[in-house]
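Tokens in:
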């Protein structure tokens, strides 16, 4: 389940736009380029000749074997990738690929020899690497699956290999004794040491006609005994299966061998359940920021606290002793759902206080059985008289002792320097951390090269002086220089990783992902450290209280780190040769491989997929950092962009004096007579009355742009822009009873809306005005007015501008920390109101939602306004195991249901192909959406809707209906989504699209029942609101009544309906709701007429409500009419005629005429909206038509202007 940590959220306050952060990022680029080049070189599987010969025998390459062994999309944490890198007498990966991945749902250590390099023979670094990874498997109780094909010891290096190599076989025997099982899959010839590997494994699989295992091959046998024998007869698969008994299974080919290996893993005892949270929250700040925060020059310290905020779950950290020993950060946090203790160097020197603090913290972690993560950037312990007198030796020894005696798992990351005894104190290789990785800037030695060479120079000079010999400065300088270069080379991460002093080099931006997977591994068997440390330091009562994380304690503060709140930048998906997404949703680092993206890049099909007979897949993201977003623009988009650029230049040269009334095709003429008073803002008294009306009738219905107190204060101060006030008045006037408007409400609304829109256009495209949140709020309010009046062309233009402006202001991401609390809340409310409108107007065949949920990384709004603990949409729509929202977070729940509505629109209205699975398949898109809908019930009260209203909101004469607006709206959306997902007509259209000729009757019968039940609940909800005396309803409730009414109308005329009278009553209730509330909303009248005119005959109703499926029960005219009756745009368009279903063909709706195409995206218009230059304000009497054309992809208007 998802668990919100009790650790406090820590905000980052540094401004990453400052020059030195930008410089850091630039200086990291060549370092990362070198890393990726080295990674590619280490991943080579032999020269082309060897590979061709190997594949020519019908054998798979080792990485292909691993890919097939692992589960689909399994993580594979490759270990020791740089073993032997750059060293003599070694090949890439030291002839051995090793790592941890999931096989049949169980984490395993996977080994594979590389037979295309020196026959897979072992060199010195192969042995070091295999001994290390076997140690990892044994410590963490991982089964081993070895893919064997090796020539044994590399004889020219036998002296370096033989003595260490015996440990491989000893470890296999000891593992077997401990009950830690190993499986060897033999793919080819394995001689001498290569033969002992399967012999000492617990289970062996031999590939028929390929696997050959013997201590001495035919040449050695002939030389030693004179016997001449073929390899297959000496030690082939059949011999070992039938004669020696070494082979437990014979596989017909390599694919069969891998399948049998997976079967063996699946037969093992089920692993322990994961200890971490199932859905941990990601950090609030992007991992990409790490390369801006960290200076690649390790001599310059950086703020490690800021780095931790990019690593830990939800950026929540509890700091231990923040004011004591400040050079060492000791804190508790969660990583990938696992609670950990973190010891990190804030500055590179450890003083006496830091040593004491670190020792105590490690003991506390042992008391709580908490793993410890060490982040190295340390040059050692402080020296000098002051440090010595402060007992640095004693305190340092205590820290080293604590690290040595600690029994909980340790994981170390060398971020920069790791020198001298500081390496020991931070759990270097000698102190046996479970995992140890280095960043590309990591360096490890007794001290820095400059310091060490300086010491050596001093020793040389003292030695020469004591001998009485003269010093030749040039020779000494050269000697010291050579020594310094050697130390520099030997201390850098590529060298230490090559000789096995770490488990790999990782991209700094992937630190969280690597740590997350390592913690999944080390916690698999449980964490125990308490017994080991009780003898060292029994905890005091104060310590026991401190460890109770659920209770605030004065020692657990927010850290005093500083860092900017950068916008949450998404990272592109992993590409071929990089890591994958783990089970918790995190990207893995670049040494991991994504199984299904092993394409090597050749098109139309790569060598890998050609060999395996797989479909070739290509990722969009680039391999090398900084990984910019892929360019996916088609030629049509490019042409559109060119024409928009031409339009920009033409518009910028227009006469600024030619501005005329901005009216669309359906605009009413300007009001005359008594309505002329609406051509300017009214008095303060009218404005204040309008504010009362707005916050009583319009706020939370469902849009919520303002904090009432802030808005009223700005209204009093006169600091609200006039276009926002005009828009505000246009919305509030609809429900006003102020005598100022008399009977001219419609004229006032149109006049205020026209003035607001004119001013928005004038200011938004001028050089001296910046678009701000007020612009977004005003444009969105005007879009609602246009849509309900049936002016869809204008409405979509304004929605598009609202979305684009919101994106350019980054409202879809978390607000920056430096903003005031009220500003943060208002930005959040405004964006989600834009999001709501975009989703609510989308039900229709030609109006897909513009905003994608994946681009909305802003946390959902909560009742208290902070949203600190709120999830993002992505977490809610992933059907979490537990509630992520409180039951009273009604605005967030409304947004949640709007997201589901958008998904239903794409599934049911746009009829996108989506999943090939039929709807009754549990893997289908239909089932996925239905599951998300059901998760809404975990937040809602089981009581009836009227009972909940009475109990939770206490209806009475003084209640303000805006208080419960979002509660009602979320419930209405919930039932509407069910009606549309299970709609008798829409679902049959979907089945027809998928050619589903044989549909289970139970499925259809259940879908009809669900649509009827939720249409009933929807009608009862609207009736309950009327009974409670609600005076103002959202415009969208009309569409809800329409959808429910159509479903009930079908049941009224259905011949087999057992309860037609009840259906008729509900149908009439929907009609009554539309008729009773048509005053404020013109489109309610339109829908009422459409519902009354819907008169299907019984054959149509019976066919749609039947449990048997027939694809041809409707004519094309009837189909078109039924489409129109669920199309929100058509229903609200005043230009559409109404025709009864049974008598007249339905009006055709053409996407070219008045609708946004399915491929619409506001990003195409980015240059049009943001890149205008020139000193003149845009002026044109048809500018709305041009804006709509540019955003809709309709180039006719642009062409007319550009060729004029």
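Residues out:
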């Amino acid at each position: 389940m998802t668990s919100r940590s009790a650790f406090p959220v820590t905000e980052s306050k540094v401004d990453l736009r400052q020059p030195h952060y930008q410089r850091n990022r630039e200086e990291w680029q060549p370092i990362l380029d070198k890393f990726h080049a080295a990674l590619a070189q280490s991943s080579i599987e032999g020269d082309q000749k060897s590979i061709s010969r190997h594949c020519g025998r019908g054998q798979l390459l080792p990485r292909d074997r691993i890919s097939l062994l692992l589960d689909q999309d399994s993580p594979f944490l490759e270990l020791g990738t740089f073993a032997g890198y750059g060293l003599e007498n070694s090949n890439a990966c030291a002839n051995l690929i090793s790592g941890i991945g999931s096989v049949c749902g169980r984490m395993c250590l996977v080994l594979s020899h590389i037979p295309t390099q020196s026959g897979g023979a072992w060199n010195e670094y192969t042995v070091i690497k295999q001994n290390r990874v076997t140690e990892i498997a044994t410590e963490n109780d991982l089964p081993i699956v070895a893919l064997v094909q090796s020539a044994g010891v590399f004889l020219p290096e036998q002296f370096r290999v033989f003595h260490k190599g015996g440990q491989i076989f000893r470890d296999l025997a000891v593992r077997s004794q401990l009950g830690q099982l190993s499986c060897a899959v033999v793919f080819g010839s394995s001689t001498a040491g290569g033969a002992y590997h399967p012999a000492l494994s617990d289970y062996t699989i031999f590939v028929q006609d390929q696997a050959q295992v013997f201590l001495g091959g035919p040449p050695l046998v002939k030389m030693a005994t004179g016997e001449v024998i073929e390899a297959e007869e000496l030690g082939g698969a059949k011999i070992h299966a039938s004669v020696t008994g070494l082979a437990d299974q014979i596989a017909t080919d390599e694919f069969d061998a891998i399948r049998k290996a997976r079967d063996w893993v699946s037969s093992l005892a089920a692993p322990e359940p994961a200890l971490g949270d199932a859905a941990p929250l990601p950090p609030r700040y992007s991992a990409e920021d790490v390369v801006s925060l960290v200076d690649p020059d390790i001599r310059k310290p950086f703020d490690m606290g800021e780095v931790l905020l990019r690593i830990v779950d939800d950026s929540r950290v509890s700091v231990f002793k923040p004011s004591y020993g400040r050079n060492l950060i000791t804190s508790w946090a969660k990583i990938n759902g696992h609670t950990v203790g973190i010891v990190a160097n804030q500055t590179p020197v450890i003083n006496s206080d830091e040593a004491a603090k670190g020792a105590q913290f490690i003991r506390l972690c042992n008391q709580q059985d908490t793993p410890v993560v060490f982040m190295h950037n340390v040059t050692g312990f402080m020296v000098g008289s002051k440090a010595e007198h402060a007992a640095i030796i004693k305190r340092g020894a205590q820290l080293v002792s604590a690290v040595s005696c600690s029994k909980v798992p340790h994981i170390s990351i060398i971020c920069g320097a790791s020198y001298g005894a500081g390496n020991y104190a931070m759990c270097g290789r000698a102190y046996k951390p479970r995992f140890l990785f280095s960043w590309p800037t990591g360096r490890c030695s007794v001290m820095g090269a400059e310091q060490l060479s300086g010491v050596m120079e001093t020793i040389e000079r003292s030695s020469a002086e004591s001998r009485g010999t003269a010093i030749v400065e040039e020779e000494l300088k050269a000697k010291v220089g050579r020594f310094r270069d050697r130390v520099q080379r030997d201390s850098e991460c590529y060298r230490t990783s090559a000789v096995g002093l770490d488990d790999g080099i990782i991209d700094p931006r992937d630190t969280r992902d690597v740590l997350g997977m390592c913690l999944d591994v080390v916690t698999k068997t449980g964490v125990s450290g308490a017994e080991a440390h009780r003898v060292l330091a029994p905890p005091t009562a104060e310590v026991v209280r401190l460890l109770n994380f659920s209770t605030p304690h004065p020692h657990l503060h927010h850290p005093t780190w500083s860092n900017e709140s950068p916008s949450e930048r998404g990272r592109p998906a992993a590409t071929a040769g990089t890591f994958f997404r783990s089970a918790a949703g995190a990207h893995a680092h670049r040494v991991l491989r994504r199984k299904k993206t092993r394409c090597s890049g050749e098109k139309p099909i790569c060598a890998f997929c050609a060999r395996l007979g797989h479909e070739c897949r290509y990722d969009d993201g680039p391999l090398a950092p900084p990984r910019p977003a892929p360019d996916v623009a088609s030629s049509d988009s490019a042409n559109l962009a060119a024409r928009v650029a031409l339009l920009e230049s033409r518009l910028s040269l227009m006469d600024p004096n030619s501005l005329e009334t901005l009216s669309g095709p359906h605009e009413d003429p300007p009001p005359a007579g008594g309505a002329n008073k609406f051509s300017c803002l009214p008095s303060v008294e009218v404005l204040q009355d309008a504010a009362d009306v707005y916050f009583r009738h319009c706020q939370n219905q469902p849009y919520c742009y303002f904090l009432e107190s802030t808005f009223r204060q700005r209204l009093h101060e006169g600091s609200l822009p006039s276009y926002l006030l005009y828009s505000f008045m246009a919305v509030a006037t609809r429900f006003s009873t102020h005598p100022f408007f008399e009977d001219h409400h419609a004229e006032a609304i149109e006049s205020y809306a026209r003035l607001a829109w004119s001013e928005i256009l004038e200011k938004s495209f001028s050089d001296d005005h910046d678009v701000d949140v007020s612009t977004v709020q005003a444009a969105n309010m005007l879009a609602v007015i246009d849509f309900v009046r049936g002016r869809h062309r204008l409405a979509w233009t304004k929605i598009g501008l609202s979305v684009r402006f919101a994106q350019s202001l980054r409202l879809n991401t978390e607000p920056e920390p430096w903003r005031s609390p009220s500003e943060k809340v208002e930005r959040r409310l405004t964006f989600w109101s834009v999001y709501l409108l975009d989703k609510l107007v989308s039900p229709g065949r030609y109006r897909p939602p513009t905003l994608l949920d994946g681009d909305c990384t802003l946390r959902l709004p909560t009742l208290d306004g902070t949203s600190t603990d709120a999830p993002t949409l992505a977490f809610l729509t992933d059907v979490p195991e537990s509630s992520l929202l409180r039951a009273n977070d009604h605005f967030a729940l409304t947004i949640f249901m709007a997201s589901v509505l958008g998904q239903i629109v794409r599934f049911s209205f746009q009829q996108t192909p989506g999943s090939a699975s039929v709807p009754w398949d549990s893997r289908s898109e239909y089932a996925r959406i239905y599951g998300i809908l059901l998760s809404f019930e975990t937040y809602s009260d089981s009581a009836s809707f009227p009972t909940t209203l009475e109990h939770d909101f206490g209806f009475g004469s003084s209640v303000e209906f805006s208080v419960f607006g979002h509660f009602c709206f979320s419930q209405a959306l919930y039932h509407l989504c069910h009606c549309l997902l299970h709609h008798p007509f829409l679902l049959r259209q979907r089945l027809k699209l998928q050619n589903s000729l044989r549909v289970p009757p139970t499925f259809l019968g259940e879908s009809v029942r669900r649509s009827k039940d939720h249409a009933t609940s929807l009608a009862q909800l609207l009736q309950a609101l009327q009974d409670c005396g609600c005076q103002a309803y959202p415009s969208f409730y009309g569409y809800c009544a329409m959808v429910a009414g159509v479903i009930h109308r079908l049941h009224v005329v259905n011949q087999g309906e057992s309860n037609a009278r009840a259906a008729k009553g509900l149908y009439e209730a929907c009609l009554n709701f539309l008729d009773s509330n048509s005053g404020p909303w013109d489109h309610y009248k339109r829908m009422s007429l459409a519902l009354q005119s819907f008169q299907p005959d019984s054959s149509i109703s019976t066919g749609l409500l039947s449990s048997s499926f027939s694809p041809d029960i409707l004519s094309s005219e009837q189909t078109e009419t039924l489409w129109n009756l669920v199309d929100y745009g058509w229903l609200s368009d005043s230009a559409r005629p109404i025709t009864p279903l049974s008598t007249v063909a339905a009006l055709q709706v053409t996407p070219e005429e008045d609708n946004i195409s399915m491929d619409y995206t506001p990003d195409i218009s980015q240059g049009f909206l943001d890149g205008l230059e020139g000193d003149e304000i845009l002026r044109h009497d048809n500018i709305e038509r041009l804006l709509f054309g540019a955003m809709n992809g309709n180039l006719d208007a642009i062409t007319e202007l550009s060729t004029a």
